[in-house]
Structure formats: C-alpha cells, structure tokens
Write a structure and sequence with these properties.
CATH class of the largest domain: Alpha Beta
Helix content: 40-55%
Radius of gyration: 18 Å
CATH architecture of the largest domain: 2-Layer Sandwich
Order of helices and strands: HEHEEHEEEEHHHHH
Number of strands: 7
CATH topology of the largest domain: BirA Bifunctional Protein, domain 2
CATH superfamily of the largest domain: Bira Bifunctional Protein, Domain 2
Length: 267
C-alpha cells in the first residue's frame, strides 16, 4: 500500500471520529505543529483536525539513505482539544483500518518525554512501534508556547513512509530523493556563516509581523528560524550556552505569536 492510500484511509477513519481533514501544509521542522494546529489548539473553542504535512529532520540518517530514518517524512498530523476516550485505543483502531493484523505484529507504545524547548510544550508522549519500526507518536499537551491550555490537547502523528514499509508498500512521492539532496546540502554544500547571517533578518521580520498583529506569518518565520538553527548547527560546533540562547529566543518568538493571537481572538 502506497503513502497516498494510507493517508486517505486514515483521513476517512478520523473523519468518522469527528476530526475533519483540512488542506495540507507544506513543511515543518520535526516536533513542531503546523500553524493551523498551533493556533487551533490555543483557541477558546474545541479544535479537531487531520492534516498532511512534510516533516524535515536533519538529525536523521546522514545522507537520507535509511528508509526507517527519513530526512523528509510525509506525515499525517491529527490534533484534538476537548476529546474523550483513550487516544491509544483510537490509534490502534486507525491502524486496523489499514488492514494491519495487530495480533500478529509486535505493537508497542513506548513512553518518552514530550520536550520541545522552542514551543515550550509540556505533556506526556508515546512513540508507537510496529515490529520495531517507529510509525508515529501520541502526545498529550498541557502547555503550549508558555501558556497553560484550558483543556488538554492530543496530537497524534503517523509516518506514512514507515507505515508503507509495514504494509509492504513503497514510497512513491519522491521524499527519499528529496531527503537525500537536503541532507547532502546540509552536510556539504551549505555555508554556516551565510546560514547564521539569515537568523537576524528572519527574527526582525517575525518581530515586525507581530508588531502589526500578523501572528500567522510571524509563526511561519518562527518555523523557518527553527529550520535554519538546526541547519547551522550541523557543520559548525555550537556550545550548550549558544544552543540554549537560540532555543530561548525562538521560544520567545513562538510565545509572542501565541500572545498576539490570543489577544486578537479574545481567548
């Protein structure tokens, strides 16, 4: 089964569970939320959505040649606020909707800390493994961008590429070649000094957007900063202090995006 069919089946499953599909969002760094999910979870009203997204993780396989550790991973991100029931049971049911015989597979929910310093996320998290393959995750979010959430939110992610491997399918969306090229650029062709020089202009633009009350483009600049920060650290040694300062700055900008949005929405 290919990624497209897997995504469609999962979207149909979650639609029946009250999580409608919304338009896909381009690309985000690993462990981040799309703008729709970020602001949706912060909203005063209940939020539920199912959204496709490409996730970039430059800390994966050095040259993007390991299908179990893709640099660019096509994923489905499901977010809910005001949900009921056990998300793990829903996750199992969604996997069964793909035709997976879980009684014959080694399915595990492995607890791990839900830490995202940039977003200041606090909550519990499980990695979901099938026969040792990391196919997704489930996270409870109690705090986001420095704000305590009025209701606990749930974020579930599926790795469509890894699920395709479990279902003996193939990734036909070209993400493997894209990941190989991105990894090669990050490790060989990029110029750390130039990348570092871009951090200040994007920070300034983010702050300028926030001053104008434009939280959506500001958050997109934050996503770019997170990617550039990761890219810059691959070829140039970064001290713990420097990394902490960078994380605090990006966290502050994400908090600013949340603050401006909540003020505009009277949350």
């Amino acid at each position: 089964m290919a990624c497209e069919e897997i995504a469609l089946r999962l979207q149909n499953f979650w639609k029946d569970e009250g999580c409608p599909s919304i338009p896909p969002y381009g690309a985000i760094p690993a462990l981040w939320l799309t703008p729709d999910a970020f602001f949706g979870i912060l909203a005063a009203r209940p939020w539920r959505s199912c959204q496709r997204v490409s996730v970039f993780d430059l800390l994966q396989a050095p040259y993007g040649d390991d299908p179990l550790r893709p640099v660019v991973d096509s994923r489905l991100q499901v977010t809910q606020q005001g949900f009921s029931g056990d998300p793990r049971e829903e996750f199992i049911e969604s996997l069964q909707s793909l035709g997976l015989d879980l009684c014959a597979r080694d399915l595990r929910f492995v607890p791990s800390e839900c830490e995202q310093p940039y977003l200041a996320v606090r909550g519990a998290r499980w990695r979901v493994l099938i026969d040792g393959i990391d196919v997704g995750s489930i996270s409870y979010l109690h705090r986001l961008a420095g704000f305590d959430l009025k209701e606990v939110a749930m974020a579930a992610e599926y790795s469509l590429c890894r699920l395709a491997i479990c279902l003996e399918g193939q990734d036909k969306d070209g993400s493997k070649e894209l990941g190989r090229q991105i990894a090669s650029y990050a490790l060989e062709a990029s110029e750390p000094e130039t990348i570092n020089s871009l951090l200040r202009p994007y920070t300034d633009e983010c702050e300028r957007a926030l001053e104008s009350g434009l939280y959506f483009p500001a958050y997109e600049h934050v996503l770019t900063l997170a990617y550039l920060n990761q890219l810059a650290g691959l070829r140039e040694p970064v001290t713990f202090v420097e990394r902490s300062e960078q994380a605090e700055q990006i966290a502050s900008l994400a908090h600013g995006c949340a603050s401006v949005y909540m003020e505009a929405a009277n949350v």
